[in-house]
Input
Amino acid sequence: MELPADSHVHSEYSWDAATDPVSVGLMRRTCERACRIGLSTLIFTEHLDFEDHWRAEPADLDPHERKLIDATGHVRLPAFDLTGYLESIDRCRHTFPELRILTGVEFGQPHLWDGAAADIIGSGEINRVNGSLHMLPYGDTDRAEPITLYRNQDPTEVMSAYLEEIPRMVAGSDTFAVFTHIDYAVRTWPTDTAGPFEPSVIAANFPEAAAMLEHFGFRAGTEPEDFWAR
Ligand SMILES: [Zn+2]
Output
């Protein structure tokens, strides 16, 4: 049986990995590992983020990422190095000819940043665009990740707000092919203060979210576990 492609992979060209010293050579090492375990295809979907009002506290980020927080409490992200990334992809294709290596991005909040991303996504160099929803409105002008919002707002309301933003993101951009990690807000659910994450509390919103995805052209596959696609 052939393993499916790993279509959501980050390398040292993603800002979160790039700030971590252990990420040196990560793309090459990931290719080595893919060959070792018999994976035929990798898609390096690097973070493509333009958010310039991202509020975070040091505890919300991994230690190596905290240097990106400025004096105003905003995270200042470095620009995606498309040229360096493509050169690295090219080197890996030569080094691992048996591996199928595709290009991609994980584009954060595409419904807000399509214009800023147009040059990169329209460059003809990007094979796959994963769309991700990492941040929600916070205060009058800022945005924040669920981990930050959970500390400052009612966690159930944060989760509901996350789900409500999904159809807005889908309706607001045609740029991305995959809505990636729809469970993002579950990852940092504050079990310590709010108890275990209990889906039934907000389950009423899931059929609504699914109906909205359907409305915008996403369809279930033949098997229930297949990804919804459009
Ligand atoms: Zn993500």
In short: The beta strands are 6-9, 41-48, 100-108, 128-132, 136-138, 142-144, 178-179. Residues 6-215 form a domain with the TIM Barrel fold (CATH 3.20.20.140).
